[in-house]
Write a structure and sequence with these properties.
Strand order of the largest sheet: 1-4
Structural class: mainly alpha
Shape: globular
Order of helices and strands: HHHEHEEHHEHHHHEEHHHHH
Helix content: over 70%
Largest sheet: 2 strands, parallel
Strand content: under 5%
Number of helices: 15
Length: 383
């Protein structure tokens, strides 16, 4: 009896330490770190004030440049109503996915293409620099307008990746596109204050818990899991059936939309570890906010010739995210059911920041638009 119990405990440890779960945790952490650093780089590249408001793009520039130059700052009203909008979108996908799956696949492919081109941009800039110098010169390319060589290369490579993903439906390509979406959203969507961050994350926590735990009582199915796991007919298959080319359509597999990260288990064939993009992006926006605040404090300390604490808000929140993700993974294994990851991620990331800010005396400043206040103060001092 004791031997059976020991074997069961050992099996549980092996299951938790499976490669798919480890990859999910590691990749999620790396995406948040990389997206946060890209946000700081964009602030410096576009010469942004720390309030996160971007300069207005040139109307004569390319559609790609106008889209990628725009920053979206979430305000209080948007933070409150975003979970409501997300719930509405979830219900639309739950009830009308079969009818609108071609539309969903098309929109997702377009967003993923633009997002992944953003990820590829630094590599393309490096590759085009020997031939085109700094790469700031723009060339006219048909309906795309005027684009730099790096922008053109990133769009071509990203488009090729999307096309291969549509044809093959391979999970590796889907994960690559999902990673691009994560990094782009963390870099381009800004939380202006700790108040907005708290409202947004608490609202999304309630949203996640309701749709995972309680939706089955109303809709006779777990709406969140159903939407996350359903597959769409391949657009190639749909077009082939309309053109009566069934031989082409039959070899095109169904595709899963890149709204999640999936990694297969090395030990249990056919088993995947899955994490929704919202469980990466939403805590990632909070971590990006505190990284920007850490950078602001670092610059202020350097200007005043003061020592900066080695333990930053970003370190604190990143450790909390890791602990929360591990806790969610353990809970899903213990209960053998899907878990609302934000139920664990939000407290473990948000509470340490609130406590640390209170102890350091930064809570009042971080709660009410710290970057706007700092920017205004700096302009007043310059005058």
């Amino acid at each position: 009896m004791e031997q059976i119990q020991v074997e069961a405990e050992t099996q549980w440890i092996y299951t938790f330490a499976d490669s798919s779960r480890i990859l999910t945790i590691v990749i999620s952490i790396l995406l948040i770190i990389y997206g946060s650093f890209r946000a700081l780089g964009l602030d410096a590249a576009f010469n942004l004030p720390e309030d996160g408001e971007a300069e207005q793009p040139n109307p004569s520039s390319s559609p790609f440049a106008r889209l990628m130059d725009g920053f979206q700052t979430i305000n209080t009203a948007q933070a409150v109503f975003l979970p409501v909008g997300a719930s509405f979108s979830l219900l639309v996908m739950f009830f009308f996915f079969d009818t609108l799956q071609f539309f969903f696949a098309l929109c997702t492919a377009a967003l993923a293409m633009i997002a992944f081109s953003f990820v590829l941009m630094p590599v393309c800039q490096f590759l085009t620099r020997p031939c085109f110098g700094s790469g700031n010169q723009k060339y006219y390319v048909g309906f795309c307008g005027r684009v730099t060589p790096a922008e053109a290369m990133s769009l071509v490579c990203s488009s090729a990746l999307v096309l291969v993903w549509i044809v093959t439906g391979h999970w590796v390509l889907m994960d690559a596109l999902a990673m691009g979406l994560c990094v782009s959203m963390i870099a381009y969507i800004r939380l202006p204050s700790l108040k907005v961050s708290t409202l947004l994350l608490i609202g999304l926590l309630v949203y996640d818990v309701f749709w995972v735990f309680f939706s089955s009582y109303i809709f006779k199915a777990n709406v969140m899991v159903h939407v996350a796991t359903q597959q769409a007919d391949n657009p190639v298959q749909i077009m082939a059936s309309k053109l009566r080319m069934n031989s082409v359509g039959n070899i095109s597999p169904q595709i899963s939309l890149p709204g999640k990260l999936v990694f297969p288990s090395m030990r249990d064939r056919g088993r995947f570890s899955m994490l929704g993009l919202g469980d990466i992006v939403m805590p990632g926006l909070l971590l990006c906010f505190v990284m920007r605040y850490d950078n602001y404090k670092k610059q202020a300390a350097a200007a005043a010739d003061m020592d900066q604490s080695k333990i930053t808000y970003f370190h604190c929140s990143l450790i909390g995210y890791i602990v929360g993700l591990v806790t969610a993974t353990v809970a899903s294994e213990v209960y053998k059911a899907a878990q609302p990851a934000l139920l664990y991620l939000v407290p473990f990331t948000l509470l340490p920041i609130l406590v640390m800010a209170y102890l350091k005396g930064d809570l009042r400043k971080m709660w009410q638009d710290p970057f706007v206040a700092a920017s205004a103060k700096l302009k007043f001092m310059e005058v």
